[in-house]
Amino acid sequence: MSIAETGATPYYAVIFTSTRTEGDNGYGEMSELMEAAARKQPGFLGVESAREEIGITVSYWRDLESIAAWKADATHMIAQKTGREKWYEQYVTRVCKVERDYTFKRD
């Protein structure tokens, strides 16, 4: 996975921080499906994710309407429900407006 190229500010970040239950129980497959589906959504700019004991996924969006549409997507709603029932011990979702970003990339 690489660092998302989001384009010009301002844009929005959805930060999803979680701790998981034991075992995969279909989580890996659903995670891949959700990322692929999110990439097809209007307003999606990119995603970055890391997991050890705590998982952090940051998705980037053009505007709040795009975030709301993704949250209401039928397949995403099934994944959210299943996450609460099977995959997560706890999670928090934060939505932030990105006013500035700074980039460094080694040549």
Describe this structure in words.
This protein has helices spanning about 25-40, 65-70, 75-85, and strands spanning about 10-20, 45-50, 55-60, 90-100. It has about 110 residues and is α+β, with helices and mostly antiparallel strands. It has a single domain, classed as Alpha-Beta Plaits, CATH 3.30.70.100. A four-stranded antiparallel beta sheet has the order 2-3-1-4. A hairpin with a 3-residue loop joins strand 2 and strand 3 (about 55-60). Helix 1 (about 25-40) packs antiparallel against helix 3.
Q: What's the topology here?
A:
Elements: E1 11-20, H1 27-39, E2 44-51, E3 55-61, H2 64-72, H3 74-87, E4 88-98
Antiparallel strand pairs: 1-3, 1-4, 2-3
Q: Which characteristics define this entry?
A:
about 110 residues, about 35% strand, Alpha-Beta Plaits, alpha+beta, 4-stranded antiparallel sheet
Can you describe this structure in just a few lines?
Pfam families: Monooxy_af470-like (PF13826). This protein has helices at residues 27-39, 64-72, 74-87, and strands spanning 11-20, 44-51, 55-61, 88-98.
Q: How many structural domains can be distinguished in the coordinates?
A: 1
Mean pLDDT across every amino acid position? 93
Distance between the termini: 18 Å
Q: Under CATH, the topology is which?
A: Alpha-Beta Plaits
Structural class given helices, strands, pairing? alpha+beta
What percent strand? 25-35%
What is the helix/strand order?
Answer: EHEEHHE
